[in-house]
Design a protein that fits this description.
The protein has one helix and three strands; from the N terminus they run βαββ. The longest helix is centred in the middle third of the chain and has 15 residues.
C-alpha cells in the first residue's frame, strides 16, 4: 500500500500560467522525491500600473509518495 502526502505550492512566471506550473513542479522535484501529480487550485494575475499583466501565479496541490 502506498501513502501519499499533499503540499501546496505557489509559483509565478512573467510568461504564462503554463510556465508557472512547470517552474513550480520543477522546483518542487528538486527537493522532494516521488512527485506524482499536481492539481491547480487557483490562478491569478498581477497587473502593472497600466493594467497589463505583469505576472502569472498559480496555487497548486502537489502529491508525492511517502518513503517507507
Amino acid at each position: 500500500m502506498s501513502v501519499v502526502k499533499i503540499i501546496e505550492v505557489k509559483a509565478s512566471s512573467k510568461k504564462s500560467f503554463e510556465d508557472a506550473i512547470k517552474e513550480g513542479i520543477a522546483r518542487t522535484r528538486k527537493t522532494i522525491e516521488g512527485v506524482r501529480s499536481a492539481w491547480i487550485k487557483e490562478q491569478e494575475v498581477v497587473l502593472d500600473d497600466r493594467g497589463n499583466i505583469a505576472e502569472y501565479r498559480v496555487l497548486m496541490k502537489i502529491t508525492f509518495i511517502v518513503k517507507e
